[in-house]
Amino acid sequence: MLNKLAASELVLNDDGSVYHLNLLPEDIADKILLVGDPDRVPRVSKYFDTVEIKKNKREFYTHTGTLRGERITVMSTGIGTENIDIVMNELDALVNIDLKNKEFKTEHKSLDLFRMGTCGSVNPDIQVDNLLVSKNVVGLDGLMHFYSDYKFENEFSKSFLDNFPYANIKPMLYFSDCAPELLDLYKDAKYHGNTATFPGFYAPQGRQLRLKALDDQFLEKLNDLGISNFEMETSAIYGLSKLLGHKAITVNCVIANRRRGEFAADHHASEKMMIEWVLERVIK
Questions:
Q1: Which of 90, 177, 186, 227 has its CA 20 to 30 A from that of 137?
Q2: Burial 135-160 (b: 16+ CB within 10 A, else e)
Q3: Angle 234-244/81-96 helices, nearest 10 degrees?
């Protein structure tokens, strides 16, 4: 790869900010909280001591300020791994590419990324309104197969692949895990588990409206393979973090147990609990 990037490879706005996030390098901190919903950004930043940056474009909203004397950023990603592909590459560009000259920097900078998201459980023993940290993750969306250098294997991935029963989906699978350096921050979470990242909300998550899903027992079979919960972003965050040299971890608020048909009585209260719990630990 050439050191100098073409204008079509790294697209910038007129003010020099990265195209989708609408951010300049000075707009972000080294610790970044990732949330899906843009409305969740102010619900997080209201806990900051100060807020110095408020920017947005499309579904990407960013607030940067300080918390207990340390600079911190919260950013919305929208839904899905395709959005995470944008977020991760543009965040990395902000810290590891000279945007003005469109050249790679000689010194690599690593970001700490903390996803706060909601999820559903496929394990009937996991209780709603509790937190689950994603240790391992399997992506069913195929994103990381578009990156030539991505390879990941551990005991969980080998076991999952050996026993995965859906031949038409199997080629899309990829795996990753959280940064062990960040896992210790959340060792007191009620649950630590293996997460599946799905490429959709309906049939991929076993829902059926007018269209029939692949298998009525899909979620149950995933649980049999060791999956605890599912959502729509973590596999791309973990996978791209490994390729780009960043550290990432996901804290999930379990708002549904699909095997028991339960949904959180007040998911806004659960979200508030998650935000406060994460912020208490991300900066001491």
A1: 90
A2: bbbbbbbebbeeeeebebeeebbeeb
A3: 30
95 with 109: CB under 8 angstroms?
A: yes
Rounded-to-integer distance, Cα 17 and Cα 165, Å = 45
Positive or negative torsion for Cα 222, 162, 236, 250:
positive
CA distance 251 to 82: 20
CA atoms within 13 A on the CB side of 84: 27
β-strand 31-35 against 70-76: which pairing, if any? parallel
Q: What is the pLDDT of residues 63-103, one digit of tens each?
A: 999 999 999 999 999 999 999 999 999 999 999 999 999 99
Transcribe 210-239 into DSSP letters. SS--S-TTHHHHHHHTT--EEESSHHHHHH
Helix/strand/coil for 91: helix
Of 117, 123, 118, nearest to 260 (Cα)? Answer: 123
Strands, E assignment, 5-150: 31-35, 50-57, 60-67, 70-76, 97-98, 103-104, 112-121, 130-139
121: exposed, middle or buried (C-beta count within 10 Å: 0-12, 13-18, 19+)?
A: buried
SS3 15: coil
- pTM value is 0.96
The string over 185-203, giving b where at least 16 C-beta atoms fall within 10 Å of a residue's C-beta and e elsewhere, is bbeebebbbbbbbbbeeeb
Q: Which amino acid is at 205?
A: Q
